[in-house]
Design a protein that fits this description.
about 525 residues, 6-stranded parallel β-sheet, alpha/beta, 12 helices, 19 strands, 9-stranded mixed β-sheet
């Protein structure tokens, strides 16, 4: 489809097309939005980090550059020191794949895992799981690879990690920070904390975020926002109740590419979108997943506060292959490929198409068991028609997700040799690819189509946006009111996978949070926390 009738759209064209109110798109500079009853921009924001050994280290350095330069030790996915041979193989693999495309279609990200030395971390700096897949244009940020300017957005007041050895290098980077292994004790003792960055296992996100919000602390929680749909609803409710500034750690949300995709779609460059295909290669080679056996428990090392690591999950014995980076594939702790990459890839479709609750969801997957999620999945969502004064009318849309090595189908007209993007939008007037930091492009490519004039507010990266929102008394652009929608849609995948053998397409009553045609599915919206843990 050549899209020859698609022209350069302006913001004025767009507003006229959808009949939106002119005031709906006013761009307000960030520095004039100081709120009443909040800290003034000149005041210091005291930030605490929880779970700082891997992804959390990058998050913290994006807020404030280390006071002392301390390199991260090279470690495997199970947190063990890498051998010289593993380091050499990892470096060779990165050299082979430099300039390639990150899994899931995000150019500029970390190289993929196939060919890694056994147990080696798949990408990023040596032994840097949890920082992979940076969206395009984000690699200059601290902790995301490459060199960046020094940061001083806030004060790193305290650091908490259950593994003093794994996170020890981060503690050394910020020698003035107070150190804890139990976030509950830190919350009780450190009243000067203003905000907290949570980069723990998925299953610990909700209890920690809830506890800090109840003490009126602002919260940034890594993706996915939480582990269950019930937790998702609860965190959004608490954010409203306590009026705190919240954010899900989805770097691509603040990228220029994602904003341009939203602007192109909403401007009608490809007409009404009827179908979207999104995909990632995760978890293939990145962490254990599929019908595999959980390793037998071994003795807990002295440097690990395992009880806090387990948190609300059922108590099971420790093994290094089920902690650190590898927990992502276990039902007890992680949310699989969708939880790891869905926030990045699903974000732009949800934002651009104003998606809320799907009316149905159906999944099929490779084999799995009671311990580990499947290695690959295909999921189909159906969303109803939508209308708002901001977006105008949008017709029903089908969204299809593929992971574990299953790529989205090649769109008709995609040039030979051109990779299928992480997201493909099929409209009445054309096909567009882009998202997760990628700039939009048409299929077949037409460089003459430049899309609408930019009109969404540019907020800086997500860390600048979050700290700025705290200091000026406003919402972040990726706060829990948006992040909860993205995360709930993502987590419905796991409910559909767990009930696929019932041979039904699940019908979802979103407002009442239940499946209407399979009662058994409703037991998967949450789980019973271990005694002593709650929201």
């Amino acid at each position: 489809m050549k899209n020859k009738n698609v022209r350069h759209y302006s913001r004025r064209n767009f507003i006229g097309t959808v009949g939106a109110a002119a005031g709906a798109f006013t761009i307000v500079p960030r520095n004039v939005m100081a709120g009443r009853g909040h800290r003034q921009p000149s005041d210091t924001v005291n930030v605490a980090g929880i779970g700082v050994g891997a992804q959390g280290a990058g998050d913290i350095s994006n807020i404030c550059s280390p006071e002392v330069e301390v390199s991260r030790p090279a470690r495997t996915n199970s947190g063990q020191p890498m051998t010289a041979a593993q380091i050499a193989e990892q470096q060779a693999r990165r050299a082979r794949m430099s300039g390639g495309t990150a899994p899931g279609g995000a150019p500029g990200g970390a190289p993929g895992a196939p060919g890694a030395a056994p147990g080696a971390a798949p990408g990023g700096a040596p032994g840097a799981p949890g920082q992979q897949g940076a969206p395009a244009g984000m690699t200059g940020m601290p902790g995301m690879g490459g060199q960046a300017a020094k940061r001083n957005l806030a004060n790193i007041y305290a650091l908490c990690d259950v593994d003093s050895d794994y996170a020890g290098y981060v503690f050394k980077r910020y020698p003035r920070a107070k150190i804890y292994s139990d976030w509950r004790i830190m919350l009780e003792k450190e009243k000067s904390i203003d905000a907290v960055v949570i980069a723990t296992t998925d299953h610990n996100h909700a209890p920690i975020a809830a506890a800090y919000m109840k003490e009126k602390k602002h919260v940034d929680v890594e993706k996915p926002m939480c582990k269950t749909v019930f937790e998702c609803r609860k965190l959004a409710e608490l954010a409203r109740q306590y009026n705190v500034v919240t954010q899900m750690g989805n770097q691509g949300h603040a990228s220029e590419g994602t904003r341009r995709v939203v602007e192109w779609i909403r401007a009608g460059v490809i007409g009404n979108v009827r179908e979207v295909h999104i995909w990632t290669d995760r978890p293939a080679g990145w962490w254990p997943q599929g019908d595999v056996q959980r390793p037998a428990p071994v003795k807990v090392p002295k440097n690990l506060n395992y009880d806090v690591w387990i948190g609300p999950a059922p108590y099971k014995g420790y093994h290094p292959e089920t902690t650190h980076f590898n927990w992502r594939g276990l039902w007890d702790y992680g949310t699989g490929a969708m939880g790891d990459m869905g926030a990045h890839i699903f974000d732009a479709p949800v934002w651009a198409l104003d998606l809320k609750y799907p009316t149905s969801v159906q999944a099929t997957s490779s084999p799995y068991n009671t311990e580990y999620l499947p290695l690959s999945e295909m999921v189909t969502y159906e969303f109803p028609e939508r209308y708002s004064t901001e977006t105008g009318y949008m017709p029903p849309v089908t969204v299809k997700w593929f992971d574990g090595g299953l790529k989205a189908p090649r769109p008709k007209g995609l040039e030979d040799g051109r990779q299928v993007g992480g997201a493909v939008y099929y409209g009445d007037k054309g096909i567009l690819m882009g998202g997760n930091g990628q700039n939009p492009s048409l299929v077949p490519n037409d460089p003459g189509v430049t899309g609408p004039e930019p009109w969404l507010e540019r907020t800086g990266d997500i860390f600048e946006d979050w700290i700025d929102a705290i200091r000026n008394g406003k919402k972040s652009s990726n706060d829990f009111s948006h992040a909860a929608k993205v995360t709930e849609i993502m987590l419905l995948t796991n409910i559909a996978v767990l009930t696929q053998n019932s041979n039904v397409t699940l019908l979802y009553d979103g407002p009442n949070m239940k499946m209407t045609n399979l009662e058994a599915a409703n037991s998967h919206f949450h789980y019973e926390y271990r005694q002593g843990w709650s929201l």
